[in-house]
Structure formats: structure tokens, C-alpha cells
């Protein structure tokens, strides 16, 4: 009886043990993969947000529970990217990118996160002033980054429509009349 009790306690502890960061990340990635599959059948933005909510929560849980690990850093960036690219909750994406930059200022994707803050402000939310400030911060911190040229382009063209950025079409020229190949009679 005593042995059975000990075995039960051990099994309970094993079953309730906290997963490793890798296991937790894998579970969160699976939830996001399921959400991507389900998103194909969704039509409204509210439904889209609710489809991705469990995966985002799982990723946020990895970031919170395993801070300082590579998985936590990847998970926090994934939260922001999912808000931006998949659930299309742009203000939440900006907030999550800010959090990533705050928690991991020297992180592998800190520069990308800073750039995307400006990009979302400008191209998704139409907030030119916030976009300008974000791009300026990016260029101050990362003047030699591969995305610096893009940031400067965005900064130089804030508020312009796509049509204003395209070169004008070439002027039409009249084609000379085509000579007939028939001999004259």
C-alpha cells in the first residue's frame, strides 16, 4: 500500500512537472500551425484574432515562463509577428515589438522589430508622426544595418501614396506609318 502511494505521488509529480523550454515552444508552435490552417476558413478580423489567440497566449507563456532562454526570445518575437502578419492586430503587434526591443535590446531581431514598428505605423495605421519617430530611432541605433536604406526610403517618403512613388509612365510616341509591301500599279 505504501509503495502504491509513493508510485502515485511520483507519477503525479512527473505528470505535473513543468515542460522544458523546447517542449513548451514546440507546443506553442503547434497551436500556431493549427491556427494557420483554421484561418483559411475565417472571414472577419474578429474571428481571425480569436483563431490565433491560443497560439499567441502559448507563445507569451513561453516568453514569460522561460525568460532569458533562446526560446523565450523567439517566442516573444513570434507573438509580435503573429499579431502583425496573421491576426492583423497592428497596435498589439507594435506593443509586442516594443516589448521585444525592451526585453532583448541586443537580441537577434531587435533591429527588425524596431524597423517593423515604423513600418506598421506608416503602412498599416497611417500614423506618419509615430512612423517618423520610429524610423529615426532605428537609424540612430542601426545606421549600418542592412535595413537602414529601407528605413531612410520610408522616412523620405512618409505620407506619399504608392502612385506618388512610381515613376511617371514614358510619353507615348506616334509610330510612323507602315509602308505597304505591295507594289504600286
The amount of helix comes to: 55-70%
Low-confidence stretches: 1-14
| Rg for CA atoms | 26 Å
Total helical segments: 9
General shape:
elongated
Oligomer: single chain
What is the residue-averaged pLDDT? 87
Number of strands: 0
Order of helices and strands: HHHHHHHHH
Whole-number count of domains: 2
Strand content: under 5%
Instruction: Please outline the major beta sheet.
Output: none
Alpha carbon gap, first and last residue: 121 Å
Task: Explain what you see.
- The protein has 185 residues and is mostly helical.
- It has two domains: 20-108, no CATH class; 110-159, no CATH class.
- 69% of the residues lie in helices and 0% in strands.
- It contains nine helices and no strands.
- The protein has helices spanning 2-16, 21-39, 45-65, 70-86, 90-103, 110-123, 128-141, 148-156, 162-165.
- α2 runs parallel beside α4.
- The model is unreliable at 1-14 (pLDDT under 50).
Give a quick set of tags describing it.
single chain; 2 domains; disordered N terminus; elongated; mainly alpha; 0% strand; 185 residues
Question: What topology does this entry show?
Answer:
Layout: H1 2-16, H2 21-39, H3 45-65, H4 70-86, H5 90-103, H6 110-123, H7 128-141, H8 148-156, H9 162-165
Helix pairs in contact: 2-3, 2-4, 3-4, 4-5, 5-6, 6-7, 7-8
Give a summary of the structure in a few sentences:
The chain is 69% helix and 0% strand.
